[in-house]
Design brief:
Shape: extended
Strand content: 25-35%
Number of helices: 11
CATH topology of the largest domain: Immunoglobulin-like
CATH class of the largest domain: Mainly Beta
Number of domains: 3
CATH superfamily of the largest domain: Immunoglobulins
Distance between the termini: 51 Å
CATH architecture of the largest domain: Sandwich
Oligomer: single chain
Radius of gyration: 30 Å
Structural class: alpha/beta
Number of strands: 20
Amino acid sequence: MWRFSHRLFRTIAGVGLWVRRRHTRAGLLALGTLVLTGVLGVDTALTVAYQIFTVLLALLAAAFVLSQFGDTPVRVQTHVPLSLTVGERFSLQFTVRNVSNAPLDGVTLHIQLADPRPTLAEFRSRLRFPSYRGWMMLIAANRVATIEEAVVPALPARAEVDVVAHGRALRRGRLRITEIATARSEALGLMRRLLPAHGSIDICVLPKRYALPTLTLPGSRHHQPDGLPHGSSVGDSQEFAGLRDYRPGDALQRIHWRSFARVGKPVVREYQDEFVARHALILDTFGAPGLDVVNVVNVVFEEAVAVAASFAWTIDTQECLLDLMFVGDQVHTFTAGHGFMLPLGLLQVLAGVSLKREGELHILIDMLQARRAQFSACICILLCWDDARRQLLDTLRASGATVLALLVSPAAPADLPDGIVLLRPGQIEQDLAAL
C-alpha cells in the first residue's frame, strides 16, 4: 500500500508541476474550462458544452504543437548571494543578453528548484498513514524557498538588461536551483516553451537568529592539551615564548638554526602551554516522544536551532573559542574562534542539522565527560527534560564550568528544577531578552 500510494501521489504531483510550468495563465484557464465542459458535455443531447470542449481541445492541441518549435536566443548570467536567512525576502539578479540580430519580447525566466517530493523511505518514516494530505504536508516541509518568475523586458538586438527575481526563504538547508530556463509562449498564448539557459546553483539558507542581550560568560581560561592552530593569538600564544640552550631530550624540530649558527652551540625554541577561555554550545537533537506528532517540520526543534544560531553568531570569538556540539550520525564538534572556523561556518553547520528520532543522549554525555575540564562555560539548549538531560547538566557542573541551561518547550515540565530558563515557541525573543 505504501509503495502504490507513493507512486500514485508522485505521479499526480509530477503532472501538476508539468501543467503549471508549461501553461500560461490563459492556458490554465482554458485547461480548467476543458475539464469542466468535458464533464458537463457527456450527454450531447442535453447540453452544448461538448462544443466548447471540442473548440478548447483543438486550441490546446494546436498550442502544444506550436510550443515544440521556436528558440529563445538569450544568454543568462547570474549574480546570486552565497547565503540567505530563513524568513527573509531575497532577490536574485540576472543579466539577460539578446544574442540575435532581431528584437525579443515576451520572455520570462523560470527558476526551477529541486524536486520537493519525498522519497519512499521518507514517505514511510514520516507518515503514520499514506494519505494525500500528509503527502502535501511533506512537500511543503521539503520546500526550502519560493521564487517568483522574472519578466524580461523587451530587448533590442544585441542588447542586455538586468532582471531581478524575488523570493522568500521558508526553511533552513540547501536551496538547490536545478535549472534556470527561458519561457516564451507560442502564438496562441496558451502554452510556452522552456529552454535551459543556465545550470544549477546551490545557496545555503541559514537559520533565523534572535537578538540577545549583552552576555558575559564567566569562567577562567583552561589548559588546552591539543594546543591551538599555528598563528593563533587567542589566550597565551603557543607560537613562541623564547630561546634557551639545548637540553638532552629536546626535539630536533625545536632547534633554532640561525641562533645555533651564530653562537656555535644548539639553541632551541621554548613554548608555553595553551590557556584560553573555551565555551561549549550544546544542542539537543533528540526529540521527546510525541514532540513531533505529524512527523513534519518540528517547530520546537527549529526554534532550538534558531536559539543556537543566535548564540553562535553573537558570542565574540576573538578572544575565546566556541565549540558547537550535537549528535548526528555521530557526535559532531565544530570550533569557532581565531585560528578555527568563523561564526558564519557554525551557522552553515546549523543549517544542515536534523532531529534524531532514534538514539540516546549518553554518547554525548560520555564525550563531555572526557572534555569537560577544557570548558569555562557551557550553553545547553534542550528539547525536553528527563533523567538523561539532568545527567548531562550534572556532568558539566561537576567540572566547575558555568552552565546556562535553556529548555525550548511550550510549557514547563512539572519537575523542572530552578535555574533552567524556559523558552516558549512564539515568545523566544521575549524570553531571551530576560536572560
